[in-house]
Write a structure and sequence with these properties.
With 201 residues, the chain is α/β, with parallel strands linked by helices. The chain has a domain of 126 residues: Rossmann fold (3-Layer(aba) Sandwich), CATH 3.40.50. Helix 7 links the parallel strand 5 and strand 6. It is globular, with a radius of gyration of 17 Å.
Length: 201
């Protein structure tokens, strides 16, 4: 029995995509863009912040929308069960201020993510990334202190941590990413995903 730690992506895996939900709630279609459309995260975030400013929307409006989002059906039960077997960390490029209400609904799992810079009036003025290539960097750091990692995610920015881990999985990914990575086991249902992780532990 090795010292295992499971690293999971958050959006698309455990909860819906936050920006897509906010785009629908605010009626601003441009905010639907994700890292699938714009791989350069800095460019994407600065563009998003510009749109929020243009529409006079701040942190409160986004948090109000996030409060209405529920985790994907079965995600909490999956996490609860997984955490009886091993340590789990959620690695996400989202922001503490966005994730908080969702972490509550998931039973407060450990989350490593980034943070927003917010002015006293609630305007989001900028953001701070925890580190570069945060998912891969974190997995390598965990390995350097004696953990073996098992990773799962749905998007391009998850492939680094998935490939660097002793076992890695795609979960609720796109047809294109699955086709481009035929060697990676891909799952759509939480119970299958749980079983695959259990076998890898």
């Amino acid at each position: 029995m090795g010292m295992n730690i499971v690293c999971l992506d958050m959006e698309g895996v455990l909860v819906p995509e936050i920006w897509i939900a906010f785009s629908e709630a605010s009626g601003i279609p441009e905010l639907r863009r994700t890292t699938r459309d714009e791989p350069d995260y800095d460019k994407l975030m600065n563009w998003r912040l510009g749109i929020l400013r243009e529409h006079g929307l701040g942190l409160k409006e986004i948090q109000d929308t996030i409060a209405t989002i529920d985790p994907l059906p079965g995600a909490k039960e999956f996490l609860d069960e997984l955490r009886t077997m091993t340590q789990v960390i959620i690695l996400s490029d989202t922001f503490t201020q966005f994730a908080q209400p969702l972490m509550k609904k998931l039973g407060w799992p450990t989350l490593f993510c980034n943070t927003l810079e917010v002015a006293p009036n609630g305007e989001i003025t900028g953001y701070r990334m925890r580190c570069k290539n945060s998912k891969l960097t974190t997995v390598k750091a965990l390995q350097s202190i004696g953990f073996e990692t098992i990773a799962g995610g749905d998007s391009h920015n998850d492939l680094g941590m998935i490939r660097a881990s002793k076992a890695g999985f795609l979960f609720k990914s796109t047809e294109q990413i699955k086709a481009d990575n035929p060697d990676l086991p891909a799952f759509e249902e939480f119970d299958e995903f749980l079983e695959a992780i259990r076998k890898a532990l």
